[in-house]
User: What shape does this take?
Amino acid sequence: MRIITARRVLVGAGLDTLENGGVVIDGDRVVWVGPASELPGEFAGGDVTALGDVTVLPGLIDAHVHLGFDGGPNPVDRMMAENDARQVATMLRSARELLSCGVTTARDLGSRDLLGVAVRDAILDGTADGPRMLVAGPAITVTGGHCWFMNGEVDSPEDMRRMVRTLHKGTVDCFKVMSTGGNMTSGSAPWHAQFPQDDLAIAVDEAHRLGKTIAAHAHGVEGIRRALAAGVDTIEHCSFQTEDGSDGYDEELGAQIAASATAVSPTCSARMKDFMRLLPGRRWALGDLYRAGATIIASTDSGIDHNPHWAFVSALESMVAAGMTPRDVLLSATSVSARVLGIDDAAGRIDAGLAADLIAVHGDPRDDIAALHDLRFVMARGAEFTPDPVPVFAPLDPDDLPDMLVRMIEAQESAHAKSEPEPVEVG
Ligand SMILES: [Zn+2]
Assistant: This one.
């Protein structure tokens, strides 16, 4: 029996303040939460850790990561070059990086074959340190489509149904379908829808029949529309990205998303702060969707290029920069995410019966999300973890920007030039 006490404990789904709180942990579970002064006598012999003037809160949830991508400049090339054994080593390192910034649950929305399942199980049985992983396995895509190299290609309704069933048999926790192309796969474009709506609906029906959630990757408007109509649980990115880099946000569709049971997983990475700075004319859909009242869950797409797994807290800062309040960002990374991902009986809040996933920070992250950088304590499923040092997240070098960003800047500049009135010749 272990007893953690702290000046402040954030309890319940609303992250409400409990002053001078105590949390009792038995094995991997929380068994009691309340004022430390009211600790029941049955726990009196417990091993007490007095954390002092800190805030204890639930471990954080990143709803969109890729353990198999290393977050460097060329993660796709690396994944394709690595054999399975080497990929698993990369994935275990990624998992440890996430846990080192207080992420005690992460959803992997695309890795090769069923490698993620093996990694998930190695973490759960204590072989390796990392967050509880919810693993989708390979993202389901069309032949040659976005992330085809993860080996989830399907082209017909029958293939779609079979793929969902095959992955279920492989014990994945959830599914991921690529409703549009993406930025990272050459020959695929984010504004193009990949699947007919009926095929997406088959994937959703099968996933829900099996009691599992399904995520749809969607950038362009048509792919977002089809994914929403098919009834997916989460829309990933939901960026309304257009070919010419202009603002593609559709207010009517945004309102439909807000009124639906589908949540938005905006993959608002640490790198978004660079994007906001370098593309000042662009409107970012996350702010619009938040104001429209959509359910938002914190997610980063960590592992993709220039987006390391250890930058989770900087990603939450990007969500604040996009217009969310720190408190709503924190909820999106704890109880709201747990509910959307279907794990609120296990994670997302500090409560008796739930997993002992706790972190402690100096300050109050409900007022200032940056307080999460000052991590003082991490416990995942009852096991205390000493975080590895996390580097400072640096802005991109303006002379060495990623190609995709250079293309977006050029597209925005040419769109801007077109909208300027033609200069009138004088003379
Ligand atoms: Zn992704």
About this structure: Residues 64, 66, 109-110, 301 surround zinc ion (CB under 6 Å). Residues 2-58+353-381 form a domain with the Urease, subunit C; domain 1 fold (CATH 2.30.40.10). Residues 78 and 116 are 16 Å apart (CA to CA).
